[in-house]
Design a protein that fits this description.
Elements (H helix, E strand, L loop, with lengths): L1 E6 L10 H10 L2 E8 L4 H11 L3 E5 L11 H10 L5 E10 L7 H18 L3 E6 L2 H10 L7 E3 L6 H9 L2 E5 L9 H9 L5 E3 L21 H12 L3 H15 L11
Keywords: Exonuclease, Hydrolase, Metal-binding, Nuclease
Pfam families: TatD_DNase
InterPro entries: DNase_TatD-rel_CS (IPR018228), Metal_Hydrolase (IPR032466), TatD-like (IPR001130), TatD/YcfH-like (IPR015991)
Length: about 260
């Protein structure tokens, strides 16, 4: 059984066929999913999904692209939601130097505040890192993120960066790019990540794996990520699925066995 640890099933791209997408994921062997609420619009829709489906969990936080919009009451809101039984992490949070929507200093401040909240509540964090490897590691260290650990979502850095994150107690998660022919670095890093720290995801509707690259991604496609990861690790897909699902269950403290029904 597969665990898609990072998806956005509440995205508008699924408005016409969301239930069918979720059904296809179950048919593909996906037993659990974590939906990500990352701003004022997506946190409520993420919570609605988590409350509607036993096998969908929620992570809530403030995305770096939206950092400039976060207010004190939003942080209080995130804190209150962390008491919900279906909320398993604070995220996705982090730094994004690709999109010029929030100044770096604002991103840094918002990230630090959310790591502080995670430490206060004892919640793992889900890190978004785009073109900001050095600063991410620096802030994680300075804010003692190792006290809670978490997940480096859709990892795109070097093995050196991965090692620093692993040393702080983080899991490393890979998605569609490991199926791309030209994605040399993610594949090289995945091979070296210890099996007990490996996770898989889709980040749907984004980062669609081969052979559907360029089209809308969906959670059922995590099976293709699992197949690529298994080949790189030299194990069976079944072994890869079992290990990564167990890793996710432990990382997010999920103990129950939800029934696969709405």
């Amino acid at each position: 059984m597969l665990f898609d640890t990072h998806t956005h099933l509440d995205a508008h791209q699924f408005d016409e066929d969301r239930e069918a997408v979720i059904a296809r994921a179950l048919e593909a062997g996906v037993s659990r999913m974590i939906n990500i609420g990352f701003n004022r619009e997506t946190i409520p829709t993420t919570m609605k999904l988590a409350e509607s489906y036993d096998f969908i969990y929620a992570a809530v936080g403030w995305h770096p692209v939206d950092a400039i919009t976060m207010k004190d009451e939003d942080l209080d809101w995130i804190a209150s939601l962390c008491a919900h039984e279906k909320v398993v992490a604070i995220g996705e949070i982090g730094l994004d130097y690709h999109w010029d929507t929030s100044p770096k200093e604002v991103q840094h401040r918002v990230l630090r505040r959310q790591i502080g909240l995670a430490r206060e509540l004892g919640m793992p964090i889900v890190i978004h890192n785009r073109d900001a490897h050095e600063d991410i590691v620096k802030i994680l260290r300075e804010e003692k993120a190792s006290e809670v650990g978490g997940v480096m979502h859709s990892f795109s850095g070097s093995w050196e960066t991965a090692k620093l994150c692993l040393n702080m107690g983080f899991h490393i998660s890979f998605g569609g790019p490991i199926t791309f022919k030209n994605a040399k670095q993610p594949k090289e890093v995945l091979v070296q990540v210890p099996m007990d720290r490996l996770l898989i995801e889709t980040d749907s509707p984004y980062l669609t794996p081969h052979p559907f690259r360029g089209k809308r991604n969906e959670s059922g496609y995590v099976k293709m990520v699992a197949e690529a990861a298994a080949e790189l690790k030299g194990i069976t897909v079944e072994e890869l699925a079992e290990i990564t699902t167990r890793n996710a269950m432990e990382r997010f403290s999920i103990k129950q066995n939800p029934e696969q029904k709405r």
